[in-house]
Amino acid sequence: MTHGREEHLWIPESDLEGMSVDTLAVRAGQIRTGQLEHSDAIFPTSSFVYGSAAQAAARFGGEEPGNIYSRFTNPTVQAFEARIAAMEGGERAVATASGMAAILSTCMALLKSGDHVICSRGVFGTTNVLFQKYMARFGVQTTFVSLTNADEWRSAVRPETTMLFIETPSNPLCEVADVAALSAMAHENEALLVVDNCFCTPILQRPLELGADLVIHSATKYLDGQGRCVGGVVVGPEKYLNEIYGFIRSAGPSMSPFNAWVFQKGLETLPIRMRAHCDNALELAKWLESQPSVETVYYAGLESHPQHELAKTQQSGFGGMVSFALKGGREQAWRFIDSTRMISITANLGDVKTTITHPATTTHGRLSPEDKARAGITENLIRLSVGIEAIDDLKTDLERGFQALKD
Ligand SMILES: Cc1ncc(COP(=O)(O)O)c(C=O)c1O
C or N terminus of the chain, fewer CB within 10 Å? Predict the structure, then answer.
């Protein structure tokens, strides 16, 4: 009699049931080949072969399951999708070529001409452009409201509203939305609540458990964690994901197997990275708050933050993004940024390396002056994506910026 696991080349989903997100990050969704490799295999192939013409026909006809072509499915991409779906607590995930492709695919699959979307003002600048400029061309109107003002959301609802779209915490001001309240409002109006969970990741917040219908990620950020690849993913129930998959399969913004493999590896260290990001960010936010040249610090971990209590109930940590406004304007902000030496001046976020950005002239630079003002993107605002370097070294580098303001 054998007690081995010969019948399983990978761990069946049922054996991981009830396990913590930390375990799922490392173990869920691995596909093991006949070579019995321990680390995930990578399948860089555009198509798959068949034993016969009849089998090819059965695959194409949908009578036999299996891979056909990597725009449709690819084992490495499926492994990443299975892992992130397990971590978010969703039935299914579909990976995309970028975070924006995940948002676009969700809109193209689930919205139609005549629909109305309500979107929070503080979303990533390109998300705003996608709704305002491109979706409008196809007859989808969007109303932008304050992420945190329930009255604004309520009064924006129309009979044709089919989607509420939020990013929480928001980029770059770290405002926090009440996900459960917004999902109740969406459902009362037969609309969907879509949450961009990029800043928290499933380690700190699981929007589907709070009532959201779909979760979106720019995998480019924390899921990768080392700034290597661009990708995205949508997670949620089969009934919506089947539609989104159908669009991606037809339109083509699929994830490459190489990128999926990098993200799969990234997920394995996500729990410990997120804790390190949170610890550094909280310490840095407190330190920034004590600096005389700083006007305001935006971080939900600070007691001074207006949604601090909400963030404590909805999130298990406050995340790694900290923004702060300096006393002064663009000149002071640029001087500060240019005086740092170690921290990277780059627009990406969620990297183990700390990055510094001037949102008004980079990530949110394409917004009109009115939209910038409404979204709180001021010229004196600086965004830090706090990495996992030693906290004292981060302070030393930022101190160079404060010193330059004094000179
Ligand atoms: C919150 C958020 N959502 C979506 C995106 C878009 O993702 P990507 O750059 O992978 O297309 C970004 C990119 O910075 C982002 O910060």
Answer: N
